[in-house]
Amino acid sequence: MRSATWLIEGAQQAVYALKYGGLPRIADDLAAAMAALRPPADGPAALVPIPLATKRLRQRGYNQSEILARALARAWRIPVLVDVLVRTRETPTQTALTPETRLANVAGAFEMRNAELGMWNGTQGVNSAFRIPHSTLILVDDVFTTGATLAEAARALEQAGATRINGLTFARAAIPDFT
Hints:
By secondary structure, this protein is an alpha/beta fold. The chain has one domain: Rossmann fold (3-Layer(aba) Sandwich), CATH 3.40.50. The chain has helices spanning about 10-20, 25-35, 55-60, 65-75, 100-105, 150-160; strands at about 1-5, 45-50, 85, 110, 135-145, 165-170. A 4-stranded parallel β-sheet has the order 1-6-5-2, sandwiched between helices. Helix 6 (about 150-160) links the parallel strand 5 and strand 6 (about 165-170).
């Protein structure tokens, strides 16, 4: 798991503009900061954006993680696997939750879309969504706070047969003191 910057001042304003300000075009600048953090990959790699809940996607009009992933894909010349990881349920926003409640909030919130996409890696006895079982998958999101969302998404990828999973965000938040 790597992040391009800490979520302070200018970075926080940039994330807010991307996420809530209706400025998806800023994703190119954020992705440029993330591009130097490409994880090593032995073989093929693909980007997997964290999916938004349907209600939030309708409100925002776009998924900021997908836009970041597409900008990185252009820079790195690797594919984006959109709609392979799906959100199974709406979850409340994590912004005001404690680290403990964040984990509970996203538990079971993601799964792989296997049969619908007709993907299979050819390995007997492995229920995998990947044609190449040793592909490096890079989860992309805007902010890392406690890691709950990325960990839950990685769990869903792993259950579907992924063996190499990395995480990449634009910013890393300092965990607030909830005491």
